[in-house]
Amino acid sequence: MTSDRSRAPLGDAEAAELLTSARKLQLATINPDGTPHLVTMYFALLNGRIVFWTYRASQKARNLARDPRLTVLVESGEQYFDLRGLQITGVARSVEDAAEVEHIGGLVAARMGGVPADLVSDYVRQAARKRIAYVVEPGRVVGWDHSVLPQ
């Protein structure tokens, strides 16, 4: 039997639109005991790649320092026939240069909402001191769009 995902692939243009319109993703890293560590993160796009930042001492940062493999999931939709998703499995490339961390942080903060525009640069400058940024280097990309399925 064919799975719904194989019958409902997400095209390149649709995948790009989903990444552009979404603000959050699910990020899975690998804990020391091999179990998944799953969190929701705000993200941005830089040169077509997903980027995010986090505190250097966070569990996800410690996990990625030990093992850079990750999976991210960006999804939308509330009803079954509205579901769209993009799962990317790959590796995280760490970014530690202060100016680059601040730049990525600015991209992420601009998409977060809730931070007044006139305060974003001050927030990012302060937060960047304790943070590390990552670029997701994709390996395998799987997307689906249930809106194309017969109802």
Word description of this protein:
It is a single chain. By secondary structure, the chain is of the alpha+beta class. The protein contains 5 helices and 7 strands. It has helices spanning 4-7, 12-21, 59-66, 98-112, 117-128; strands at 24-30, 36-42, 44-46, 49-55, 69-76, 84-95, 131-145. Helix 4 packs antiparallel against helix 5. The radius of gyration is 16 Å and the shape is globular. The two termini are 18 Å apart. The relative contact order is 0.24. The mean pLDDT is 89.
Order of helices and strands: HHEEEEHEEHHE
Helix content: 25-40%
Assembly annotation: single chain
The average pLDDT is: 89
Cα distance spanning the termini = 18 Å
How would you write the strand order of the largest sheet? Answer: 2-1-5-6-7-4-3
Low-confidence stretches: none
Biggest beta sheet attributes: 7 strands, antiparallel
What general outline do the C-alpha atoms trace? globular
Structural class: alpha+beta
> Quick one: how many beta strands?
7
What is the tally of helical segments? 5
CA-based gyration radius:
16 Å
Into which percentage range does the β-strand content fall? 35-45%
Please specify the SSE layout and strand pairing.
Elements: H1 4-7, H2 12-21, E1 24-30, E2 36-42, E3 44-46, E4 49-55, H3 59-66, E5 69-76, E6 84-95, H4 98-112, H5 117-128, E7 131-145
Antiparallel strand pairs: 1-2, 1-5, 3-4, 4-7, 5-6, 6-7
Helix pairs in contact: 4-5
